[in-house]
Amino acid sequence: MSGLVKSEGWFYDDLDNVKIGFKVDEVLFRGKSPLQDILVFQNAEFGRVLVIDGTIQLTEKDECAYHEMIAHLPLNSHPEPKRVLILGGGDGGVAREVVKNSTVETVDICEIDQMVLDVSRKYLPFTSCGLDHPKVTVHVQDGAEFIKAVQHKYDVIITDSSDFTEEPSPSTALFQLQYYQGVKEALAPDGIMCSQAMGMWTDEDHTRMIFQACASVFNSVEYAHTYVPSSLGGCNGFVLCTDTQIVKFR
Questions:
Q1: Is the backbone of residue 68 left (phi > 0), alpha (psi -120 to 50) or beta?
Q2: What gap in Å lies between CA 29 and CA 48, rounded to an integer?
Q3: Averaging pLDDT over each range in 2-11, 101-110, 190-199, which range is the top one?
Q4: Residue 232 above 90 pLDDT?
């Protein structure tokens, strides 16, 4: 895990040449599930911070910038989204935003790690409220396997995974060509996929890889981004994908 530097009391999220630090006022949770390391700590400026496998996933202060964009971009691009699937999203923030759309009737969340759900419910009530909304059903399962077995079509599918890494991780399968092909099969004819696609300033190669893979599967692909101060490079990106001519993302 990218370190909680105990001698200094700081947590550092870093790449090879870039580092961002957060002063740790209090460690609220630190544990290891069968799949990954999970850390929650308190920071005076950003509030509660969720870290998975050494990478910051969200902070209380700026999570809205990410969750609103990844949810409302596809929802507001679709003419009438009723059935939504979230792959990942175990902190509940995307679901919290999705159910704000009045046309949405059902939301499935497929989160691979039960501990993420449990820790979020206990320490991150500002996002985990989305997990227990009456329209939401939570499935604890590998998203890549879930998408292969869906029995009905979704209007919107949102991939809210942790970042792509060269090392194998629970999210690795959610960045593969086979996964995007499976998502396409699970979408209704006018359906939309929105997937987190890294930040273009610090993850340009991975962003390009994701975009090109999606462009080989879908007829229409766009890249969007938003400013998230707690992310390396201050940016989070998204790919928006569809096969229908009805949707015009721009």
A1: alpha
A2: 11
A3: 101-110
A4: no
* pLDDT value at residue 4: 55
**Residue 180: pLDDT band with limits 50, 70, 90:** very high
Domains and CATH numbers, the chain: 4-59 (2.30.140.10), 63-242 (3.40.50.150)
Alpha-carbon separation of residue 55 from 16, 19, 154, 230 (angstroms)? 13, 11, 30, 11
Helix segments in the chain, DSSP class H:
63-77, 93-98, 114-123, 125-128, 143-149, 177-186, 204-215
Catalytic residue (choose from 53, 113, 160, 203): 160
113 included as an active-site residue: no
Q: Which of 143, 91, 144, 93 is nearest to 118 (CA)?
A: 91
Maximum mean pLDDT: which of 12-21, 144-153, 173-182 = 144-153
Instruction: Please give the C-alpha separations between residue 6 and each of 3, 18, 56, 77, 160, in angstroms, as whole numbers.
Output: 8, 20, 17, 46, 31
67, pLDDT greater than 60: yes
Nearest to 1 by CA among 120, 196, 165, 125: 165
Alpha carbons 134 and 146: distance in angstroms, whole number: 21
Matching residue, tokens 């096969």: 243
